[in-house]
Specification:
By secondary structure, this protein is an all-alpha fold. The chain has 3 helices and no strands.
Length: about 110
């Protein structure tokens, strides 16, 4: 409170607020060149961020696809094992080869 009394008390009674200076709208203006350079650096940062996000998403999709491929292979293996319980081994191999041919023809 001693520093405020040295400056004098404010008339409106708001001594807890810090005293403000005069309003000068031109004091904080930046030059066009500095604004352009700031925009360029921001654009470069954004493009780098986009690139990093794309790389991260690509890695994520690659991992997800690997998991899906492994699950599909596991399901197919289980299906052929179940088939082998009911049928002869050579017949299961024949069915497997036929399905593989059909799959290649479809794609």
């Amino acid at each position: 409170m001693s520093t405020l009394t040295a400056l004098s008390l404010r008339k409106n009674g708001k001594q807890w607020h810090t005293p403000r200076g005069a309003f000068r709208p031109t004091s904080n203006l930046t030059s066009y060149a500095s604004r352009i350079s700031a925009q360029k650096s921001a654009a470069a940062t954004k493009s780098k961020e986009r690139e990093m996000k794309a790389d991260k998403e690509e890695e994520r999709q690659r991992r997800i696809q690997g998991i899906k491929d492994r699950r599909a292979a596991k399901e197919e293996k289980e299906r052929y094992e179940k088939m082998a319980e009911r049928m002869h081994r050579k017949r299961v191999e024949r069915v497997r080869r036929r399905e593989k041919r059909n799959k290649l023809l479809k794609s």
